Amino acid sequence: VSGLNDFDHWQEYTLRKTKESEHMKQINTSVVKKDAAGKTTGAARYTADYPAHNRLYAKVIRSQIAHGQVLSIDTKKAESLPGVKKVLTFRDVPGWNYPTCGHPYNLDEAHQDVADKNILSDRVRYYGDEIAAVVAESPFIAQKAARLIDVMYEEMAVYLGDQESSEADAIPIHDGGNLLGEDYYEVGSGDIDSLFESASHVITDSFETSAVQHCNMEPHVAFAYKDDLNRYVVVTSTQIPHVCRRILGQVFKLPVSHFRVIKPVVGGGFGNKQDVVIEPLVVALSMALHGAEVYLEYSREEEMIGTRIRHKARFEISSAVDEQGRIMARKLALITNSGAYAAHGHSVAQVMAGNFIETYLSVEDMAVDLKTAYTNLPVAGAMRAYGVPQVNFATESHLDNIARKLGLDPVELRLLNMLADEKINPVTNLEYSVAGLRKAMDLGRKKIAWEDKRQAYAKQTGAKRRGVGMAAFTFESGTWPYHQEMAGADLRMNQDGSVQLNMGAVEIGQGAMTVFAQMTAERLGIGYESVHMDSVTDTDYSPFDTGAYATRQTYVGGQAIRVATKKLKKKILKRAARFLDRKKSELDLRDARIVESDSGEILMSLKELAMDSYYSDTDGGVLSVSVSCGVHNNGISTGLTFAEVEVDIQTGRVDILQIFNVHDCGTVINPVLAEGQVHGGMSMGIGYALMEEMKFDVQGRTLNNNLLDYKLPTILDHPELGVEFIESYDSNGPFGAKGLGEPPTITPAPAIRNAILHATGVEVNQLPMNPQRLFEHFSAVGLSEEV
Amino acid sequence: MYDISKYEEATSVEEALRYLADDPDSMVIAAGSDLLIKIREGKLASASLVSIIKIEELKNISLDEKGGIHIGPLVNFTQLEKDAIIKEHINYLGQAGGTMGGPQLRNIASIGGNVRLKTNSKE
Question: Is the CB of residue A383 less than 8 Å from the CB of residue A687?
Answer without folding.
Answer: no
